[in-house]
Structure formats: structure tokens, C-alpha cells
Design goal:
15 helices, about 500 residues, GMP Synthetase, Chain A, domain 3, about 30% helix, 25 strands, single chain, Rossmann fold, nine-stranded mixed beta sheet, binds malonyl-coenzyme A, alpha/beta
Length: about 500
Amino acid sequence: MSFLDTLIQHSTQQPQKLALDFLGESAETNQAITYGELETAVQRTMQFLLAHGVQPGDRIGLQLPKCLPFIYLHLATMRLGAISLPLNPAYPLRELAYFLGDAEASLFFASAEHQREIETLHPELPNLRHIFYLDAHHPSQFAELIGESAPAILPAPPTDTDQTAMMVYTSGTTGRPKGAEITHGNLTAQIEALHEAWGWREDDVLLHVLPLFHVHGLTVALHGALNAGATAVLLPKFHPEETLELLEKYPCTLFMAVPTIHRKLLEISHAANYDLSHLRLITSGSDRLPDDVFIGFERTFGHTLLERYGMSETGMNLSNPLHGERRMGSVGLPLPGVEVRVVNPETEHPLPDNEIGEVQIRGAHVCKGYWRQPEKTASAFTAEGWLRTGDLGLRESDGYYTLKGRSKDLIISGGYNIYPPEVELVLAEHPSVFASAVIGCPDATWGERVTAVIILREGYSSTAEDIIEHCRAALASYKVPRQVIFVPEFPLNVLGKVQKVVLRQQVCHS
Ligand code: MLC
């Protein structure tokens, strides 16, 4: 049964069961809804979308803060066979214009706070029929917007597993960001594998502190809870103390986060006073889990974190086991239905155990390709359908996999992927910058810190603050360099390319 069908089944079999408990910033924004109410809200949202001309295949942009209407819109869009396009609210106008333009979104739901700036974009986006502005601080506003139109006969969820359900933009080492097309079949395969591997249960209570616009918070955590008929307790923003309090007192059984969040929990001075013994599973992903956080969690909370490995294009691929050894530094074993191999990056021949090569992935969970970029799609997959992840790793003889770095030029900060070429392009627009190289320096809190290494144009001067200000105007804040280092020259290889590994050794002093 597809993920969306399963969700409908929960609404008929357990309509009174609490599905989502949204803990807003104030009592007014708190909202708790059952599976029955969720289904009603999704159906009303479908009617609203239909009334605004949404057709199967249409792209619906969602750049909203974490709120229940985001969830209704995401589910309603997919139920109609249209394509949900979640977007990070941190994207500045320039990036937003690219995503909406490239996807040719026909409807766009944005935060009322940004109405004035977003209005200026509208004339540049001929395919965009309507923009709706939502005020997350007033939940009743969405209900008023969609109204209570007479129930129409609504279409059943799409049955074509190859139909695109949602699109997630990822950047790359070259060129413009590309929309990974995640199909209905992908979503179902992803969630079934996790359901089995992590033993999701109807009586699970998940504390959800992640953003909803990335696969970790959306297709792993939220879809996971809804697919299981469990309860998700949603915090609009991560606060370390509140998180520990809720985990203890709600009480919750499941928690999923990125290493930066786990570290922030450990940094609370009285963390060990919280009793988390009733939790049945705490997972970590989106970035490598540092050993000291793994050990710190065991010592402080008596929990062995379960590390797993995934990416936007695939959802989750590998996971340490629910029962059995959760190996420190390892991303575990392939999930059900997931094929994994490690190959020589040049020849693409499979390597024997314990040898480092590129990790390649195949299975029903892997996206069908990139939106209107056939060349990028072709180069991402081998002829036999293996996805080239760009991650380096090895398989140990007992089947556990360990990641050993990246062949792609990529920085991971707090679980967000940052592609240096994107930042370098923005730096190149600064009049004083002759050349730049953007690297990730090790950072205890964030994993890596975005660092811009710059050669100034002769006769020009600039300051770190000036460079950072310049980047702020064009980039989402998590991509903005935290550190700027001016150098007279870069270490270059024989082809004249910056040797980033050497540069990192020269300038990163954590
Ligand atoms: C926030 N800031 C960051 C940042 N997050 N800077 C660098 N890297 C980050 N990840 C900056 C803000 O821009 C802001 O800067 C300042 O930190 C404070 O912002 P904040 O929002 O108050 O920070 P905080 O709440 O502490 O956020 C930290 C965080 C957040 C860890 C909770 O980064 C987060 O939710 N990360 C999860 C990302 C995620 O879900 N990734 C999944 C990708 S899917 P300023 O200068 O404006 O003050 C994927 C596949 C897979 O990778 O396998 O899961």
C-alpha cells in the first residue's frame, strides 16, 4: 500500500488518535489534531487547490515556516498528483526566484512576513498563477483562506508509482541547483524500509525538532510517524532545554536529529538530570556523527545513538541496526531493498571489502532523476542504474559500511549541505575579489565551518566584515562564510586547480 493510502487508512481506522501535536511559540499557536482531523484538513486543502486550477504534475512551491498548513499543503498536493516543492525559508530572493522559475511553479505559498519582497518577483515568473501569503502566528488564517467549500468528489491518490510526488533541490559541484524528482514509489519504498528497520509502532511518540523542507525532517521523521499511525510532537524551532524537557515529560519514545543538535543537548550543564530512559530510539544523520558525541550520549543519557546514512536523492540508504551492534563511526548496514556497492572511482569496478571507493546505491527508493536536466541525470547514474553518491566509503567484512570522505566538493554544516562553487560564484561578484576558494574548516559545534579564502585584486582592499555582508545579500545565512582569510596565493596542482586539501591544512586551525 502506498504511503498516502496508508495515511488515509489511519484516518478511517483510528480517527480519534492524536496525529500531530504542534507546540507553537504561544498558546494561541498550539494545535493538536487527530488522524480524522488531519484527513479533513487535507481534503479541504485539496478542494482549495483544485479550485485554483491545480492539475496533476503542477509544481506547488512551499516556502513556509514550520507549521501545520505546510503539512496539509504538502500532503494535499501529492494526493492530487501534483508535485510538492518545499523550500528553505532562509533562501534569499535571488535563490527563491531561481527555484520557482526553474520548477515553473504554478502556485506558491509563502510567509506573510516576506510579502513585500516576494511581490517584486511575481512579474519575473510568468508561470506563477497565484501567491498565497500565510501568517504562521495565526493558524486560523489558513482555515479562513481555504474555507469550507462543499465536499467535492476528490480523486484517489495517484497509482502510478513512477509519478513525481515531490521535488527537492540539491546543488552540485558544477552548474545550477537541480531538482531531484522523488516519486510516489520512492516515498513508499523509503518509508517501508525504515518502518521495518526501526520498528516504528503505532504507540510511538516522536519529538520532531527538524525543519520540514529537507528529507530528514519531512520524509524520514514526519512521513515515518504518519505512516506508522504514531504521534509527532512538532517544535517549530529547536531549543536544547525545551527538547530535553519534552523528551522526558511528554513523554516521547523517538527522537531524530543531526549531530549538531545532539551536541547542543550534551552541552547543557545539567543534561544528565533528564531521564530519557523511556525513549526506545534516538537516531543521528545528515552528517558524520563525531565519536565524542556518540560516547557523550552513552555516558550522559545511557543511549547508544543509531547513526544512519541518506541523501535527498534517495532518502535513507544505510542504518545501524535497531537490535544488534550500533558501531561507532559506522553508518551500518543496507536498509531492506537497498543495494549498495563500493567501486573504484575511475574504473567503477566493485572493490573488495575494506578498500575505500565511491559508494553507489540502487533500489526502488532512489529518485528518478533531476527535473529537466537529462545530462545531469545521465551523469548521476551508471548504465546499470547505480546512483553515484560522491561519498567515499568502505564495506567491512561483516557488512557494516563506514564513510571516509567525499569525492564531491561539499561542506556539511549543522546538517545542511553547502556547495562551495555556489559561494565562490557570489564572491566573484565582489569588486575586490581576484580569486576565492571556499572550504570547510573543522568546527566542534557545526561539524564544518564555511571559510572563504580570498586573494584580493591588486590595488583593492576589503575586510572580512565587508565580504560577509556581500554574501549575506545573496545567500541563505547558513551558506555565508563564518570566517574570511586573505592569502597572497593558493596551492595549485599541475592543472592550475586549487588544492583544497592542502589549503585546508594551511589555513584551518580549529
Ligand atoms: C543555523 N545557522 C547555521 C546553521 N543553522 N549556520 C551554519 N550551519 C547551520 N546548519 C546560523 C543561522 O544562519 C544564524 O546565523 C545562526 O546560526 C543562528 O540560527 P538558528 O536558526 O537560531 O540556529 P539553530 O536553531 O541553533 O540551528 C541549528 C540547527 C539547524 C542545528 C538546529 O541548523 C538545523 O535544524 N539543522 C538541521 C538541518 C537538516 O535538517 N538537515 C537535513 C538535510 S537532509 P546568523 O548569522 O543569521 O545569526 C540530508 C539527508 C540526510 O542531509 O541524510 O538526512
